[in-house]
Design brief:
single chain, alpha/beta, nine-stranded mixed β-sheet, six-stranded parallel β-sheet, about 35% helix, globular
Length: about 425
């Protein structure tokens, strides 16, 4: 069987990361085309994958205009630019891996689902947490009945002080009007993951959260607009000069440093910190997304769950406690501990963990797991290999949108039917 041929639309960190899977599995997949407006990023992917010059373009519409020249496409554009390419490539018969979120409002999400279902093509949304060995091991425990019926869940996403500063204060996802809500941009993973573990989408939810710290009111006396010029920088935990400069000194030429420089030199970093958005004081940015949020959920079967997202911690793996009628489960992203009520015994399950639970580390094997499932589905025509298909993803996106309405309006929201 020949390798599955792929186009990459958007050669940022997500598109490049997914494409690397093909380099590791050349017998199963090959990247034959790329659309990316940034010359350096486009050229880098061309060199890595040996893409012929004519298949490396700046605008995805140029590739779409050629008809179907590959089996599948990886759409990894920015969040607001997902719907149009998905509709276009679906109509051409491409199977699609679409980076999360699938879209930013209900109508747009439904357009994505309608496009792929009408065209009869497969869609895998980038909910990579479903595909990690850790998640598969945890779900196997839950589905086995070892802890009985789920009664309630506590789930924590410790975003990390530096990740919040990088992505959601200085970065692309800092402002709701320019991007989307924090819950959609970052934590749609988590509401989707809870839906997957419980086996149901929540039916009602409420939410509370706000932007508390990264505001002008908390700016230290004497702070400058940029870290490289700031007299109080040495006492600030959010110093861009210290964070990115430390990565450069340690030779960590990857995300998130790779977001702000293409050339890993002190001169390039200095220039970026003096002129670009990532060198700004975290108390002098145009950010408005929340830095902490809680969502309370009720599922159709009666189970309840709470989800907490907070910036104020060391970036770490998500942590989960599941309370069942026959036992309790605790997971920290690495190890799963099961306490059995009948025997009062405990057991630890430690799944294989291929990489850190970060974008740079492949999300603990989730990126590779998604690519493995998607490519296998395309190669065999078996869509059941995909764990994050259109209808499941639509349901979790609807829950995210309802939760944000609840936060903004102070209401208890019912999640719409995804059908």
């Amino acid at each position: 069987m020949p390798p599955v041929s792929l186009l990459v639309i958007g050669a940022g960190d997500r598109g490049t990361g997914y494409a690397k899977w093909a380099l590791a599995h050349p017998d199963r997949a090959t990247v034959v085309g790329v659309a990316e407006p940034r010359t350096v990023r486009r050229a880098r992917l061309v060199e890595e994958h040996g893409i012929v010059p004519g298949n490396a373009v700046s605008d995805w519409k140029e590739l779409a205009a050629r008809g179907r020249i590959a089996d599948a496409v990886l759409i990894c554009t920015l969040d607001r630019a997902h719907v149009e390419p998905t509709e276009a490539f679906a109509a051409l018969g491409y199977h699609i891996l679409l980076e999360k979120p699938m879209a930013l409002d209900e109508d747009s999400c439904r357009r994505v689902v309608t496009a792929v279902e009408k065209a009869g093509v497969m869609l895998a949304v980038g909910h990579v947490l479903r595909y990690t060995p850790y998640t598969q091991a945890l779900k196997a425990v839950v589905d086995s009945g070892r802890i009985g019926d789920i009664v309630s869940i506590q789930h924590l996403e410790p975003v990390g002080f530096w990740h919040q500063a990088h992505s959601f204060v200085r970065g692309n996802w800092r402002n709701t009007d320019g991007a989307t809500s924090m819950l959609m941009a970052k934590s749609c993973h988590d509401l989707d993951w809870l839906q997957y573990i419980v086996g149901q989408s929540p039916k009602r939810l409420s939410s509370f959260g706000r932007l508390s710290h990264f505001t002008p009111a908390n700016r230290p006396a004497g702070a400058a607009d940029r870290c490289v010029e700031c007299p109080v920088e040495a006492d600030c935990p959010y110093s861009a000069a210290r964070f990115y400069g430390g990565m450069l000194e340690r030779g960590e030429h990857r995300w998130p440093l790779g977001v702000i420089v293409d050339d890993f030199t002190p001169q390039a970093l200095e220039r970026a910190l003096r002129t670009g958005p990532y060198g700004r004081c975290v108390y002098a940015c145009d950010n408005d997304v929340v830095d902490h949020q809680v969502v309370a959920m009720e599922f159709p079967g009666g189970a309840t769950a709470t989800f907490t997202m907070t910036a104020f911690n060391e970036a770490a793996d998500r942590k989960t406690r599941i309370f069942g009628t026959r036992g309790e489960l605790y997971g920290d992203g690495k190890t799963i501990r099961i306490h059995d009520f009948l025997t009062r015994g405990e057991e630890d399950v430690t799944p294989l963990r291929p990489g850190e639970m970060t974008a740079a580390g492949g999300h603990g094997g989730g990126d590779a797991g998604l690519m493995d499932a998607f490519v296998e589905a395309v190669a065999t025509g078996d869509a059941t290999r995909i764990k994050s298909g259109p209808r499941d993803s639509l349901a979790s996106h609807m829950a995210v949108l309802a939760a944000e309405r609840a936060r903004l309006n102070g209401t208890v929201e019912t999640v719409p039917d995804p059908r």
